[in-house]
Every structure is written in C-alpha cells, then in structure tokens.
C-alpha cells in the first residue's frame, strides 16, 4: 500500500478497496514468481460478492504494476493481447490493454482505452486510482487505473487468428491528441489516425482483430514488421 501511494494519485473513492487490491497484488506477484510467468490473462464472472468475483474485481492494480515491470497482464482472458503487450514492452513502447470506447466524428478522433491493466510508463501524468462500483460486470468493488497516454505518436498493435488457426500482426499508427476524456477509471486516450474515425474503425475491424489490442508510444510499424518477418508471421498495416 505504501508503493501504491508513491506510484499513484489516490481518489477518495478507493476507500477500503485499496487494501483488498493490495492483497491481490501481492498474490499476483507470488503467482508470477512461483510459475516464472512472462505474461498472464484472467477472467471470472462472479455473482453476489463471492470470493472469485472479489478476486476478479481486485486484479487491475496488481496487473498494472506487473505490466509496468514488463510482465503484461490482460483482462477478459485475452492471452493473445498479453503477448501483443509483451512485444510492445520489449520494443520500448509500453503497451496498455486497450479496446474501442467511442468515436468522435466532430473532432475526428477514435477514443480508446480500458479499465486496466495499464502500462504505467506511458502515462501523461501520475496515474490515478479510482474506485468503481461497476465495471465489466464486476459489481460493487474495484480499484481501477485512470490516465491519458502521453500525447504524441502512438501505435496500436494486436494479434489476429486466421481461419486456418495461424496468427498474424495488425498494426496502425496514429497520434494521441488533446480533448475531453471520460472519467471512468480507464486508460482513456483520443487517437487521431488522420482520417474519418468510422472509416478507420471499419478497416481495423475488417482485419479480423479481436476487440482488444495493445496501445504503445511511438510509431512502431517498421519494428513490428521486422518482428513479424523474424517470426514468419503476416502483418496487416491499417492505413485508411
């Protein structure tokens, strides 16, 4: 909990949930050490506050701290996305767990983020811990990490799976820009891809990408293409 107070700004809404999230974080550290994990993914749909629901609602803090240490953790059991986060981290780009949140047709931005896990190294400011009563089906508990990714060039990168079972890379480069953000405990960012946000979303989705991916800093398409070549994987570069 002392580490949490040093790393994060604490919103008043965290209350007693911070102590529970800290306990879960310690447990995650031990799990990673015991099994020598390079990444992990988790999901549980609980009911009425039973212990597994409380564990699921307490994962984001510890998962964000692990991700910042280069051991990416992904929610909703998105193991593929945890591997995308791992690759982005090794390229020095960070890599936060991310999905679509909204399209702003007036400003021309794609708003994306997630209620964790976040890569703390790419935050534009000191990350905020916010207590949430409801997020992603986990009701009544939960501490989540909220920040805006550093403004400037970014890359979104995910893994897709083809009909034959093979995997491929999906990449697109944009820029995080200023604008109003939802205050919902998410790693929310406004990304300008230099085109109509609806057109970008159509092309991105048409690649067969899952609904999660990694968001990292810098333009990394060239590095990711080199990585794909080394792995023998195909790469789709979305450039509307």
Automatic annotation (TrEMBL):
<dbReference type="InterPro" id="IPR004216">
    <property type="entry name" value="Fuc/Ara_isomerase_C"/>
</dbReference>
<keyword id="KW-0479">Metal-binding</keyword>
<keyword id="KW-0054">Arabinose catabolism</keyword>
<dbReference type="InterPro" id="IPR009015">
    <property type="entry name" value="Fucose_isomerase_N/cen_sf"/>
</dbReference>
<keyword id="KW-0464">Manganese</keyword>
<keyword id="KW-0119">Carbohydrate metabolism</keyword>
<protein>
    <recommendedName>
        <fullName>L-arabinose isomerase C-terminal domain-containing protein</fullName>
    </recommendedName>
</protein>
<dbReference type="InterPro" id="IPR003762">
    <property type="entry name" value="Lara_isomerase"/>
</dbReference>
<keyword id="KW-0413">Isomerase</keyword>
